[in-house]
């Protein structure tokens, strides 16, 4: 699952490759903490599942170190969103989302805008996110409503041609 960018035939511009990565154990593909340190992923921007409080801290106060601390699950790579250029960005997945409310949608949209800026600032060719292996978002820490997961994956997929 290496990062080989795709060509968008319509514009002859390179499209960003979206990698739906499935966690299958430590120290191998799917382990974002390991992948982000490997040379073959140097041009890959990683999207991790974030909690609302640390997502908001990073969005509102980027210099606050608590918005850059290591988290659980794939948020182990949260510190990489605070590098220059960032190589990771969080997308809020909970806790306690009841569905795709206007507030949840607004947070996800803000995350996607920040992710776009991160991708552009680092000139990344690929974007990796945690997948459940069936086209959906992989989650383990929070119980995320299906409409939220569907919306997040749809928004991530728009990153291929922005």
SSE layout and pairing:
Elements: E1 6-8, E2 13-15, E3 17-21, H1 32-35, E4 44-51, H2 52-60, E5 88-94, H3 102-122, E6 126-130, H4 146-157
Helix pairs in contact: 3-4
Word description of this protein:
It is a single chain. This protein has 162 residues and is α/β, with parallel strands linked by helices. The protein is 28% helix and 19% strand. The protein has helices at residues 32-35, 52-60, 102-122, 146-157; strands at residues 6-8, 13-15, 17-21, 44-51, 88-94, 126-130. The strands form two sheets. It has a four-stranded parallel β-sheet with strand order 3-6-4-5. Strand 1 (6-8) and strand 2 form a beta hairpin. Helix 3 (102-122) runs parallel beside helix 4 (146-157). The longest helix is centred in the last third of the chain and has 21 residues, at 102-122. It is globular, with a radius of gyration of 15 Å.
Oligomer: single chain
Contiguous uncertain segments of 5+ residues: none
Beta fraction of the residues?
15-25%
How would you sum up the global shape?
A: globular
Q: Based on helices, strands and strand pairing, what is the structural class?
A: alpha/beta
The overall pLDDT, averaged over residues, is 92
Overall number of strands: 6
Give the ordered list of helices and strands: EEEHEHEHEH
Going across the major beta sheet, what is the strand order?
A: 3-6-4-5
If helices are DSSP runs of H or I spanning 4 or more residues, what is the number of helices?
4
Largest sheet: 4 strands, parallel
**Rg (CA only):** 15 Å
Helix content: 25-40%
CA-CA gap between termini: 22 Å
């Amino acid at each position: 699952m290496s990062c080989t960018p795709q060509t968008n035939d319509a514009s002859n511009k390179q499209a960003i490759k979206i990698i739906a990565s499935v966690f299958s154990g430590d120290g191998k593909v799917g382990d974002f903490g390991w992948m982000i340190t490997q040379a073959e992923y140097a041009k890959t921007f990683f999207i991790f599942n974030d909690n609302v409080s640390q997502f908001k801290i990073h969005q509102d106060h980027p210099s606050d170190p608590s918005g850059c601390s290591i988290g659980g699950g794939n948020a182990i790579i949260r510190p990489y969103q605070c590098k220059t250029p960032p190589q990771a960005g969080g997308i809020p997945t909970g806790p306690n989302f009841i569905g795709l409310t206007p507030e949840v949608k607004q947070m996800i949209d803000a995350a996607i805008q920040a992710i776009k800026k991160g991708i552009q600032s680092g000139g990344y060719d690929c974007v990796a996110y945690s997948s459940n292996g069936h086209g959906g978002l992989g989650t383990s820490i929070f119980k995320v409503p299906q409409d939220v997961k569907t919306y997040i994956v749809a928004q991530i997929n728009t990153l291929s041609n922005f």
